[in-house]
Design a protein that fits this description.
This protein is an alpha+beta fold and 275 residues long. The protein is built from eight helices and 13 strands. The protein folds into three domains: 1-48, Arc Repressor Mutant, subunit A (Orthogonal Bundle), CATH 1.10.10; 49-156, Phosphorylase Kinase, domain 1 (2-Layer Sandwich), CATH 3.30.200.20; 161-273, Transferase(Phosphotransferase) domain 1 (Transferase(Phosphotransferase), domain 1, Orthogonal Bundle). Helix content is 39%, strand content 21%. The termini are far apart. Bound molecules: adenosine-5'-triphosphate and magnesium ion.
Length: 275
């Protein structure tokens, strides 16, 4: 799917070692189930749908012994569906399936993805998130990443609640702790890019979540992410400094509105930037 919007059925047939007649039959029945989308262009081609990629990711996680049970849906947003799950290896954890949301449309407008099927970009987004968590775990307070397959990221379950849902007793301390995390992430070369009261979980500690938008400091975002074999440059041309300023601004605005705490934005930015 990195090469074709609709993968030719004869290629699929060779790849899965099934004769062409049976391949077509199978693709048609998968099409009826919504697992693939079939299209006759100048040839018969198929693409995995969101549901198809999700099933593929689940299968891989199970085959790799990383996932044993899927639990309740914990939330569904514009860009993800998050499930509670269980793994004999990791215990209770969280499985986040990336899906197509608003930002994918924005990316589309900004960049030429040629004729890629949009659902393939969910894989890129999941890869990006996994890579950020890998980079940050142990350095900043983020859930421990356990695996990435297709559009799914398996990670530690944080037993907490989103910042915006709580009435804090110690808001200044929490604000300082968030600023401290931003600084640690920055030192590790990461700007979150979508930080707000929705992406901070409060447990015994604070946790920063939701990283598909992150950018690497000092990199244009145009380079390839060699280590994960997928080009994850969804944020090309975005300037990390602007994103960092926006992150700081979002957090400060929230604390001002919710708790009346005021902090000077420039001094916070300078603090985060000072290595
Ligand atoms: N590791 C985790 N531990 C506990 N809960 C989590 C974890 N990761 C995600 N969640 C829950 O799932 C929700 C959505 O996750 P996340 O913020 O990563 O996705 P999202 O793409 O922002 O979804 P949305 O489109 O709604 O903004 C979080 O607000 C949180 O409630
Ligand atoms: Mg979120």
């Amino acid at each position: 799917m990195w090469n074709y919007k609709y993968v030719p059925s004869d290629l699929i047939s060779k790849r899965v070692k099934l004769n062409e007649v049976d391949t077509l039959k199978t693709l048609k029945s998968l099409g009826a189930m919504g697992v693939v989308e079939n299209k006759v262009v100048s040839y018969f081609g198929s693409s995995l749908t969101f549901q198809g990629i999700t099933l593929f990711s689940l299968k891989r996680l199970v085959e790799k012994g990383k996932l044993d049970m899927l639990g309740k849906k914990m939330g569904e947003g514009k860009e993800s569906v998050v499930y509670n799950c269980y793994s004999e290896k990791y215990g209770e954890c969280v499985l986040k399936f990336h899906k197509l949301g608003v930002s994918f449309r924005k990316i589309r407008e900004k960049r030429d993805y040629g004729d890629l099927h949009l659902s393939v970009l969910t894989v890129r987004s999941a890869g990006r998130e996994y890579r950020a968590l890998k980079k940050l775990f142990g350095v900043a307070k983020v859930p421990e990443p356990f695996g990435w397959e297709g559009n799914a990221v398996l990670m530690e379950l944080v037993d907490g609640r989103e910042l915006y849902k709580l009435r804090l007793e110690n808001p200044s301390e929490v604000l300082d702790a968030i600023i401290e995390e931003m600084r640690r992430m920055f030192i590790a070369g990461v700007v979150h890019g979508d930080l707000s009261q929705y992406n901070v979980l409060i447990a015994e500690d604070i946790y920063i979540i939701d990283f598909p938008q992150w950018v690497e400091v000092g990199r244009s975002g145009d380079e390839r992410d060699e280590d994960i074999n997928v080009n994850t440059d969804v944020n090309a041309n975005e300037n990390w400094k602007e994103l960092l300023e926006r992150d700081v601004e979002n957090i400060l605005k929230y604390f001002k509105k919710a708790y009346g705490i005021e902090k000077d934005i420039n001094s916070v930015i300078n603090y985060v930037l000072a290595e």
